Amino acid sequence: MPNVADANRPETISTDVSSEDTPAQVQDAPSATALLDTIGAVANAKIEVSEAKCGGGHAAWTTFRSPFKSGINEDTIATFNLSEGRGILLVADGLGGHRDGHLASQMIKSRIAKATRHLAKPSKSHLLSKIVPVPTEFSGTKNTELRTIILNEIELTNQRLLRSRTGSATTLALAETNGRRIRTYHIGDSEILIFSQRGRLKFSTVSHSPIGYAVESGMITEEQALFHPDRHLVSNVIGSEQMSVELGTWVTLSSRDTVLLASDGLFDNLMQFEIIEHLRKGNLADGVLEVTKLARQRMLFPDSDAPSKPDDLSILAYRCA
Question: What mean pLDDT is predicted for residues 61-75?
């Protein structure tokens, strides 16, 4: 079993992606015209938002690659529809600048999919990064503790990544749903929010990073954190000897509450109040689309008055039926 703790670790890991991730250092960009063409193409590209039933609710999500890099999207999103009223939501962000970050994020998804398969009859997958069988309906193992399965698979993934000695690592934001209750599992700087239709924040994880802890302690403000030069550092990842899991308590959702899981590509480009305002009410898929457009605009068109950090971006939103 992994250590279930507050994950307040002194060791930090840089999540800065390679030089291909910023417009000033775009590889294979021979001219300013080529760069402008790239920006225009990304700005006009259609954003696809997917939707599916998950447990007793409805999920909507999108994911896209950082606008200024030629490599693959290292994020992974998954929804696991285990039974009516029970499911798993998952966002993992493979560390940019580290070898095979995308394989690390896919590994945790695939291991949880495989570990929960015996709980249910296999059915159609709602995974985005890779098609694997996903359980959709429990088959009589009521005494099986899903919490134990999730924690075991996190620990096993961590050990496998360490044994590989490649430096691969990933963050994890995961939520287990059971009717109107939800429980969170958190590692790294991908974050989870729960807020009401009126915009009241009911729950939020703390980013496992020096800057995240500084905001939580009141040393700096959220706005100062968004512009801080050490924002790219993370203190806790799957693939580290010091990995620990921050396990939340059960939270009961009210009607129209929204649960959000997202990689740091969202939280590095938008203020928390902006995210909540776009997602707190209305059609869930439309909200995901609008907040994604805003984050992409910030990445493409930096403004001194607003945060801007090109990165892979993944957003997964959920509401109870």
Answer: 91
